[in-house]
Amino acid sequence: MLISGLIIGVVFGFLVQRGQCCFTSGFRDIYWQRDFSFLFAIFIAITIQSIGLFTLNTLGFIKIPTTPLPLLATLIGGLVFGVGMAIARVCATGGWFRSGEGVIGASVTLFVFTLTLTSAQSGSLKPILSPLLKSPLESSNIYLTLGISPWWLVGVMILATLGLALGCQKYPHKSIDSTLQP
Q1: What is d(CA 142, CA 149) in angstroms, rounded to the nearest whole number?
Q2: Residue 143 contacts by C-beta under 8 Å, 6 or more apart in sequence?
Q3: Which of 95, 97, 98 is closest to 87 using CA atoms?
Q4: pLDDT tens-place string over residues 169-181
């Protein structure tokens, strides 16, 4: 099991590094350069993952857990994490491959991320953050909250991905260099 995890980790690391997969720069490109290729890649990944996850769940190979959702903690944590990524100019994924490339700032970012995570889970930040975990929502899944089959949402995701694919094909990305030339 350890060997298979090592092999998958090396292959995944290689692909992430070669693809320069960084969420911070991907979302920045959507806004600044109107390049939706990153968003398209995310939609493809989520669509494939959703089909696989719900197929495995339907066949009984896995059971999707339903735990209460601490909404306030989730929203504040997402906001703080997003602001931190913007300030650091790197996401967690980008931090890993950039630190492997020798970028000191990325290594510092990963150290601070690890320190903050440990402090929030079991250190000095835990007593401050614990009240945010009280009063969670009863449902933790969108389809349970809406009372529908998850396959409806998978269908919507498939349609959105196909729509984005057609949009990316119809309006290809123009590089900044081509827009500056007369």
Answers
A1: 10
A2: 149, 150, 152, 153
A3: 95
A4: 766 665 444 444 4
| CB neighbour class for 142 (10 Å; exposed up to 12, middle 13-18, buried from 19) | exposed
SS3 60: coil
Q: What is the pLDDT of residue 174?
A: 52
Cβ within 8 Å of residue 165, ≥6 positions away: 40
Which residue do the tokens 């980790």 mark? 9
Residue 173 has a pLDDT of: 60
Whether 73 and 133 have beta carbons less than 8 Å apart is answered as: yes
Beta bridge partners of 137: 69
Which residues face 69 on adjacent strands? Answer: 137
Q: How many CA atoms lie within 13 A of 59 on its CB side?
A: 7
Distance from C-alpha of 89 to C-alpha of 101, rounded to nearest angstrom: 16
